[in-house]
Specification:
By secondary structure, the protein is α+β, with helices and mostly antiparallel strands. 36% of the residues lie in helices and 17% in strands. It contains 5 helices and 7 strands, in the order βαβαβββαββαα.
């Protein structure tokens, strides 16, 4: 399998909850208060925070308070974790623009919260799209269809 070159590093994990060093089973079971998240390290000379926000709105469902696509539960809800007030202001403005765009039929409910400790997920959860390409492709297609029908026509 040909490896895809990544433009910036990211790590799958958990954040926003009360339990230290949570496991996938604890988080997916809804026992920790954490959400599944991705930590992205980026170089602002290559991509801006605003551009990352634009990507986020394209790949997530910001109207669903109880999960993302086939993943259901509060541990999969849409949240943007910010590191500082500058990021908060950019995230709030980006959310406001999306809300006013009329792109979705439902209100944008994505939370914007201060970042807390990020706990990396177990190794078998890292780079899922490379480890399970057929499953990832099927999930990606389902996401695209779901978002297509959720958007205003």
């Amino acid at each position: 399998m040909k490896r895809e070159k990544e433009s910036f590093p990211f790590l799958s994990g958990y954040t926003g909850g009360e339990v230290e060093h949570p496991s996938y089973d604890q988080v997916s079971g809804g026992y920790t208060g954490h959400v599944e998240a991705v930590e992205i390290l980026f170089d602002t000379r290559k991509i801006s925070y605003t551009e990352l926000l634009d990507i986020y709105w394209q790949i997530s469902d910001p109207t669903d308070a109880f999960g993302q696509f086939q993943d259901r539960g509060k541990q999969y809800r849409s949240i943007i974790f910010v590191e500082n007030e500058k990021q908060r202001a950019e995230a709030e403005e980006s959310k406001r623009r999306l809300s006013q765009s009329g792109r979705f039929n439902q209100p944008i409910i994505t939370e914007i919260r201060d970042a807390t400790t990020f706990w990396p997920a177990e190794n078998y959860h890292q780079r899922f799209y490379l480890k399970q390409p057929k499953r990832y492709k099927k999930m990606k297609h389902s996401h695209e269809l779901y978002l297509f029908f959720k958007r205003k026509k």
